Amino acid sequence: MRVLVVEDEQLLADAVATGLRREAMAVDVVYDGAAALERIGVNDYDVVVLDRDLPLVHGDDVCRKIVELGMPTRVLMLTASGDVSDRVEGLEIGADDYLPKPFAFSELIARVRALGRRTSMPLPPVLERAGIKLDPNRREVFRDGREVQLAPKEFAVLEVLMRSEGAVVSAEQLLEKAWDENTDPFTNVVRVTVMTLRRKLGEPPVIVTVPGSGYRI
């Protein structure tokens, strides 16, 4: 899952991004509304965590732009106000969910994951394929009943492949979904991660390389 965090309180924004990355999400961070509009015009995001009171371009206008473009991106709006009328107004603008500050980080994660599931075709909460069982919420992976310990990026790559339901996923698509924009697009990080993931999942191999196209399970 790829997430954009838009928050002008830099310490909070960076803390949220760090926490989401630990949950195997690819996260980009910006600190004002103008930068947010620039990012959503370039990258495809599953979820935007959007502070309402932003400098340069107000969060409401960022949300309206996402709706206007007809993007499948889901918006979780944050605000320091817990007033009911503010929440209603935010939802009417086009936000998919609303979370007042201060918030429990566990609730933020749950809401981001719930919104992320709504950006694509509905899938069961636990993904199963080729003897692999992946639970995104519990961050657990099992292969034929054996628990497999994965690093966050390995988990993210496996989740993208599992969600594709047998379709081929290109290295570029994996890079977009599992890494943030600071990753060098010419790096071999995808190939190395897939190799490590294959080794950890064990025999027989379940991740198939499709020459010139990508990978599938």
TrEMBL record:
<dbReference type="InterPro" id="IPR011006">
    <property type="entry name" value="CheY-like_superfamily"/>
</dbReference>
<dbReference type="InterPro" id="IPR039420">
    <property type="entry name" value="WalR-like"/>
</dbReference>
<dbReference type="InterPro" id="IPR001789">
    <property type="entry name" value="Sig_transdc_resp-reg_receiver"/>
</dbReference>
<keyword id="KW-0238">DNA-binding</keyword>
<dbReference type="InterPro" id="IPR001867">
    <property type="entry name" value="OmpR/PhoB-type_DNA-bd"/>
</dbReference>
<feature type="DNA-binding region" description="OmpR/PhoB-type">
    <location>
        <begin position="124"/>
        <end position="217"/>
    </location>
</feature>
<dbReference type="InterPro" id="IPR036388">
    <property type="entry name" value="WH-like_DNA-bd_sf"/>
</dbReference>
<feature type="modified residue" description="4-aspartylphosphate">
    <location>
        <position position="51"/>
    </location>
</feature>
<dbReference type="Pfam" id="PF00486">
    <property type="entry name" value="Trans_reg_C"/>
</dbReference>
<protein>
    <submittedName>
        <fullName>Response regulator transcription factor</fullName>
    </submittedName>
</protein>
<feature type="domain" description="Response regulatory">
    <location>
        <begin position="2"/>
        <end position="116"/>
    </location>
</feature>
<feature type="domain" description="OmpR/PhoB-type">
    <location>
        <begin position="124"/>
        <end position="217"/>
    </location>
</feature>
<keyword id="KW-0597">Phosphoprotein</keyword>
<dbReference type="Pfam" id="PF00072">
    <property type="entry name" value="Response_reg"/>
</dbReference>
